[in-house]
Amino acid sequence: MQFGIFSVSDVTTDPTTGRTPTEGERIKAMVRIALKAEEVGLDVFASGEHHNPPFVASSPTTMLGYVAAQTEKIVLSTSTTLITTNDPVKIAEDFAMLQHLADGRVDLMMGRGNTGPVYPWFGQDIRQGIPLALENYNLLHRLWREDVVDWEGKFRTPLQGFTSTPRPLDGVPPFVWHGSIRSPEIAEQAAYYGDGFFHNNIFWPATHTKKLISLYRRRFEHYGHGRADQAVVGLGGQVFMRKNSQDAVKEFRPYFDNAPVYGGGPSLEEFTRETPLTVGSPQEVIDRTLGFRESFGDYQRQLFLMDHAGLPLKTVLEQLDLLGEEVVPVLRKEFAAKKPEHVPDAPTHASLLAAKERATTNTEVQE
Predict the structure, then answer these.
(1) Which residue range(s) make up the domain with 88?
(2) CDD domains from the xrefs (predicted)?
């Protein structure tokens, strides 16, 4: 199982000081956070993609390439790649390039995005969000697996004899997670291709999240990729920790109350009761996260949101120390002890390459 963090890249005023970081400061902070994630032993750093204020992560592959040059082990991912408003040809080429630079430590999460104005900015219609996601990913899937592609669809110009460059590293495309918090069509798409399904799991009660994950598992088995409990699932989550629970609540409350995403809505107590947000001690985070397995089954990736709502960099780095030193080691042990042998680990470039080589050997033997 992989544990990591994801950033939404918001530039938010610190409500306790009134100071707003510059865009440059926020970008550099995200890089520092990614490096810290590897330092404390996490498996994944993921960046969102946004094209509107107050967010700055408009070019995830640029940032991840910069981080790749300064790291050795951590998997570099997106927590959203906008499959609806990006050209699938450019996605294919950008992430193959990143894959080579990072020696395979790359995967990505496809998402439709939830900011309506972004669609017309990139020449698309939000009312076509689902058809765009389905058609664009079908093309991307082929571009990574076929050396020469002839293609025609509804939303972009046709391709004739087209070869995407560079080709995926070792002939193995980056692993794809399809992210959604509300669309059964995306869960179906992930199941059809045998890809991963990621539910952000930060705004919704467990009953809602369970419905989409259960649908994905059933359809994964239907399409012959394995048993339902072998489907590849990832979850998001939000945490804020201090040694003492009361201190965590007191410190985090002003950030929660003024956050651009949920400020002015339910109280902190209501939100922590109804969603996976956990504000408390490391042990409370451990207990809450272990409970996800009871709700959703064995899963392969857990990402935490920790650098949002104006939290200063120093505080975020302290959170990562707690996560890496006190929380993740316990979670690794507990999840590993409970995982059945037939449930797969999270896919990596090495495991995908090994599977490809086994398939090639079996084919040669049969011939």
Answers:
(1) 2-365
(2) Flavin_utilizing_monoxygenases
